[in-house]
Design a protein that fits this description.
Elements (H helix, E strand, L loop, with lengths): L1 E4 L1 H11 L10 H8 L2 E2 L9 H10 L5 H10 L3 E4 L2 E4 L3 H10 L4 H9 L1 H14 L2 E2 L22 H10 L3 E7 L2 E6 H4 L9 H16 L1 E2 L14 E5 L6 E3 L1 H5 L10 E3 L10 H8 L21 E5 L2 E11 L4 E9 L5 H18 L2 E3 L5
Parallel strand pairs: 1-9, 14-15
Antiparallel strand pairs: 2-4, 3-4, 5-7, 6-7, 8-10, 9-10, 11-12, 12-13, 13-14
Helix pairs in contact: 5-10
């Protein structure tokens, strides 16, 4: 059976799946469990990505210390591949981690540096947790710097050992990661899944976070057999939809709200889906020359309900303790009530940041 959805229904499914509807989640772990991951990025025009992602869902009651507590004290989240993830997905990732690496170049580098790997593990065993800077580089073979990593091979080795499940990130000191043995960071009583079962469960989690997607095993991790088939009015795409999200369409809609989305927010990841279902052609202008920017270096898309209505170009000025509003770009003229909603959300954002507002009138 193929479900036939309206565009409004499809967008409502996505917004609810991303916890951006009127019913806000209660805490950090609830957000991570639903979204599957919380992206980490240091670009802090307003605030770092991991914090704005959580604030846009939880709202004024979110404090940065709650994330650190969930990761380092409660161990309900873990850091992997540039994101904080719920512990419940770790067992689903372990089979692939045990197979890693599959690329010949990575295998060859690890084989050439077996002694280096043993030394890193031994140092963590005896002295951990440690920063990468506290571990000597004894690599026999170096990888060519790729623009993201330098000549020091320790971060690369730690990343490789992380992907194999041998080491883990125990916490952070500022933006610097503290490393330890995986057995001292991850629980010892995790469920054990075979490759096929783990892959299927992981696909289901990815569809749960997305709500509805055009299946693509690499791009969104969802295959053609996961979820249920669906079409959306006006689109030629063939979708897969989360059955629970589909059933929830019968529930009362509490209405929408305003959300400012960090440019690395997971809702924005699938640009093709944004254009197809929301009519929003999103371009991150961070890496464009200034003369080619239309909305700003790190402008945050503005969502009202299930519509993208504009872009917020703002920056936190910590020295003067204000949130500076360079512009609120409206795609179409906002209604007076919508102006008031955006203005109120800017005020709440500034209050959460602990600063005032400069030039905050979105008109």
């Amino acid at each position: 059976m193929t479900h036939r959805l309206t565009r409004d229904q499809a967008r409502r499914i996505i917004v609810r799946a991303q916890l951006l509807d009127a019913n806000r989640p209660g805490d950090v772990v609830e957000v991570a469990e639903q979204l599957g991951y919380i992206k980490i990025d240091p670009t802090a025009t307003i605030a770092p990505c991991e914090h704005t992602v959580l604030w846009s869902r939880i709202g004024w009651s979110y404090e940065g210390g709650q994330l650190q507590k969930a990761v380092e004290d409660d161990r309900l989240l873990f850091e992997f591949d540039g994101a904080f993830r719920p512990l419940s997905v770790l067992p689903l990732m372990l089979p692939a981690m045990r197979r890693w690496p599959e690329r010949d170049a990575s295998k060859q580098w690890l084989e050439a540096n077996e002694d280096f790997a043993r030394e890193v593990v031994a140092r963590l065993d005896g002295e951990g947790p440690l920063l990468a800077s506290q571990i000597p580089d004894t690599a026999r073979v170096s990888r060519t710097p790729d623009g993201w990593s330098g000549s020091n091979q320790v971060p690369t080795m730690l990343d490789f050992l992380l992907r194999q499940g041998r080491v883990a990130i125990a916490g952070r000191e500022g933006r610097h990661r503290r490393w330890d043995l995986a057995e001292r960071v991850y629980p010892s009583d995790l469920p054990d899944y075979d490759d096929e079962e783990a892959a299927q469960l992981l696909e289901e989690r990815m569809l749960q976070a997305a709500g509805i997607v055009r299946p693509h095993s690499w791009w969104n991790g969802v295959g053609k057999s996961t979820g249920e088939a669906a079409t959306v009015e006006g689109s030629s795409w063939r979708f897969r939809v989360d059955p629970e999200a589909l059933a929830a369409l019968d529930e009362r809609d509490e209405g929408g709200r305003v959300a400012f989305l960090n440019p690395y927010d997971s809702l924005l990841f699938d640009r093709a889906r944004l254009k197809e279902l929301f009519g929003f052609e999103y371009v991150l202008e961070q890496f464009k020359p200034q003369a080619q920017r239309r909305y700003g270096f790190f402008a945050h898309p503005i969502l009202i309900g299930d519509r993208f209505v504009g872009m917020l170009d703002a920056a936190t000025d910590r020295e003067r303790e204000v949130l500076r509003i360079a512009a609120v770009h409206e795609f179409l003229p906002l209604e007076p009530e919508e102006h008031d909603m955006v203005r109120a959300e800017i005020a709440e954002l500034a209050e959460w940041l602990g600063v005032g507002v400069a030039d905050a009138d979105p008109r």
